Amino acid sequence: MSTLLRRHSPTPTRTAVRLAALAALTLLAAAATPAARSGTPPLRGPESIEPIAPQIPITAAPIAEQFVPSFINVGANVVEFHDRTAIARLAARWAHPGDVPVVIAHFGDSHVQKGYLPEAVRLALQQREGSGGRGMVFPYAIAKTYSQNDFDSTFTGTWKTGNSIQQPPRLPVGVSGFDAMTTDPSVSVALAFKRPLDPGGKRIRVFYRAVGEPYRLTLRSGPAAPTRVVPATADGDTGVAEFDIDQASDTIELDIDQTLPGAGTFELHGISILNAGASGLVYHNLGVGGAVFDAVNEQAWFAPELRDIHPDLVILDYGTNDIVFKNAVAPDFESQVRLAISRVRAVAPRAAILLTSTQDMTFRGHDITATAELSAVLRRIAGDAGCLYWDWYRISGGAGTMPEWRADELAGKDGIHLTRAGYQLKGRLLATALEQALDYAAAHPYANALAAPGMPVNDPIGDLLRGPVGQTP
Questions:
Q1: Do the strands 251-258 and 215-220 form a parallel or antiparallel pair, or are they unpaired?
Q2: Looking at residues 290-312, what average pLDDT do you find?
Q3: Are 55 and 35 in contact (CB under 8 A)?
Q4: Which domains does the chain have, with CATH numbers?
Q5: Confidence class of residue 67 from pLDDT cuts 50, 70 and 90?
Q6: What separation, in Å, do the N-terminal and C-terminal C-alpha atoms of the chain show?
Q7: Would you say 179 and 268 are in contact if contact means Cβ atoms under 8 Å apart?
Q8: Nearest residue to 4 (alpha-carbon basis) of 405, 453, 441
């Protein structure tokens, strides 16, 4: 079968490269279902291990092969697994979602918080599965940090904040990675979206803690202004206040008032925007700029809030801040990753877990060579722990390719972060790989594993250093 997209060496304009790559990957995501289901019949027993991913014929997007940047190893763009249990339930939910949305919780660092990457994945997957809502948001202005790309926030009152970049956070945080606390008698937060939300009814869920007294919450969006008096939360727990409205405008405001002035403390952990009564897919952006992998382990309210989100897939997308400053994988990194996996499974035992690696990067003019070791460590952990693995290090081109990303205006001057176009390209690649893996698992119910070309499936640990990085042997 043909590779997903052929590599090339022509030199079109950089704008043409970006636009053609994004358009092509949209076509690829739409074409994934029939291509993945058109392969060989299901294989049974140990011999069912398939070393090659389901792949889309090049005729599905004949223009695409000419313009995808040559440094991207599209043949390696596979969500891998070496134990069918890593994907089985997620594949079943994907194929037969019923009336309950498929829920993805994407944890990560600045690559995630800014929003371009998770938005690209979300929109691609929702185009196929339908939209279950916008997912988790937070009024980032309170924390004096940048917002996700599709909305801005404002607030009134005096707040203290904590977030997952702090180790440990100054305030106990939940799954959003942020906490805003106030003792003022009356405050508010507002979210102004740059694009209209999905049409139709909304269920808006406010994740909070109320200490010492009940609070009155009023949600305002367009003509709607429902009010709830929420009880004080018990020690060791958080609360969720739900508001159902017929339609949301492009602004959502939350008024927060003490019922007994001067007697309580209110903490805001996040706001989840869901489409009322919809199935489809919900994608929560839970990124915190500057966070390391251990951030998940430092979230005090991780357990009750992740349990409430009820994810089908948890993406743990860290690593940049774990290695960039010392250019080394710390001795305790592996134990931190394994602890994070165990924390997820303790409260969401039926959720699939996807680990990702980081791409080649530079910092203050120096190559960060530890990216290769990080990728190999995460690959080994994923194989050992029964997780899915998406090797972004290898897919993005491997060692020495960051200058090429910058030359094509897909990465910024800092040599670490991508541009909007770069994140969109990455997001479309992830969405395509995830769809293909799920379709493959559904079409081959006895397949035990799926690996990218050049990664021997009888060796779940793999080794990115066996040959030229980013090449398919």
A1: antiparallel
A2: 97
A3: yes
A4: 14-130+279-443 (3.40.50.1110), 140-274 (2.60.120.260)
A5: low
A6: 16
A7: yes
A8: 453
